[in-house]
Amino acid sequence: MAASLEPLYDPLRALQQLIDHFDGQGVIVGGVAASILGKPRLTADAGALMLVSLDDLPRLVELAQEVGLGPRFADAQPFTRANRVLLLRHVDSGINVDISLGLLPFEVEAVERGQEHVIGSLRIRLPTPEDLVILKAVAPRPRDLLDIEALIASTPDFDRHRVAFWLKQFAELLESPELWSNVARLLPGA
Fold first, then answer.
1. Which residue from 124, 135, 94 is spatially nearest to 12, judged by alpha carbons?
2. Which terminal Cβ of the chain has fewer Cβ within 10 Å, N or C?
3. Of 87, 132, 80, which is closest to residue 106 (Cα–Cα)?
């Protein structure tokens, strides 16, 4: 597993340094987290969920540049303010790095519950498998359902009730019952 992530080590190390600058208020998510917590798979980018206010956006962009992560386009801050996603690129490798700026109670909990993992020479904070399932279910892409299955299968003491609690709320709030029903079929007894 560590070998498949090696091309991402430098961007992930930079991303973790950025999270560390903000007192650990973030977790690495997406395909990287799914590969470590679930089933190894190819991924070509890196992403994080960070608890950074829009007031701190200039500082986030400045610190990102200090660790080798530059904006993917000029004047990225207005886009980030409108969409709560900072689109960066690791300067040396050209690998894209997306940072979602969390705000919701679930996102705060997911970051607080994050756990440190060591993979080879890399130290990174990841969400719990349950929280990663919730994040992937709320922004579903075809690959996400496969990741969700792998996360459930690889976590013996998977907290089905936590996932059901949050996904039912998101499904109702977003008027998208499939957010819960897509995952419910994978969680008997939830």
1. 124
2. N
3. 132
CA dihedral 144, 76, 69, 108 (to 10 degrees): -50
SS (H, E, C) 142-155: HHHHHHHHHHHHCC
Strands 69-71 and 85-90: antiparallel
Q: Is 89 helix (H, G, I), strand (E, B) or coil?
A: strand
* Residue 37: count of CB within 10 angstroms of its CB: 22
Q: Are 69 and 90 in contact (CB under 8 A)?
A: yes
Phi-psi region at 175: left, alpha or beta (left = phi > 0; alpha = psi -120 to 50): left
Kindly list the strands in the beta sheet with 96-101, ordered across the sheet, starting from the edge strand earlier in the chain. Answer: 26-29, 46-50, 96-101, 85-90, 69-71
pTM more than 0.90: yes
